[in-house]
Fold this protein.
Amino acid sequence: MSTEPTLWNTVDHYFTDLLTPADAALTTALQDSEAAGLPAIAVAPNQGKLLHLLAQLQGAHRILEIGTLGGYSTIWLARALPTDGHLITLEYKPEHAEVARANLARAGLDKITEVRTGPALTSLAALHDEDPAPFDLVFIDADKANNANYLEWSLRLTRPGSLIIIDNVVRGGAVTDATSDDPSVRGTRAALDLIATHPKLDGTAVQTVGTKGYDGFALARVLD
């Protein structure tokens, strides 16, 4: 079987064209993010659709996203919410948050979404102090060095049955290197170790290929 990236891309485009038709709000969100100089690291369309379906399957009313960028994945997730649902997304850079807010407003989602700025660990602590209703789904897609910290906070902010998704866990295959001094690898390995050993987590990780290259994600369900 061929593993050429050109073939991965061709298959991804086929899936996207067939199952994820062009959408003005999403397309414009990517265009405006590029125009604002944001890095091109948003999830692929078919990955966004997967997030959307997972949120729907979860019956999510409350979603927490750690890492907003331009709001592309935020749109996918927020569209899965009912009219009385709510999504909070955390973004470190104010300029990124500004782009995301505009993209969410254009998509008609500004009433059910909230973009908070600042270091995510600070924002998570402040959110916890508010004693919010538990989140049904958490999507972690921020700086990878803090993946385990984000996962621990997610456990405090969810309930039994909640779903936690961690993106970009393969690190080009370097995730297998126990001796790596790369903070992103170490943080990702720590998060995966936590999923493997924590009594309130049950999860797995999956490798992916496609327009975003060789990568993968982890899924964990919060147990009683």
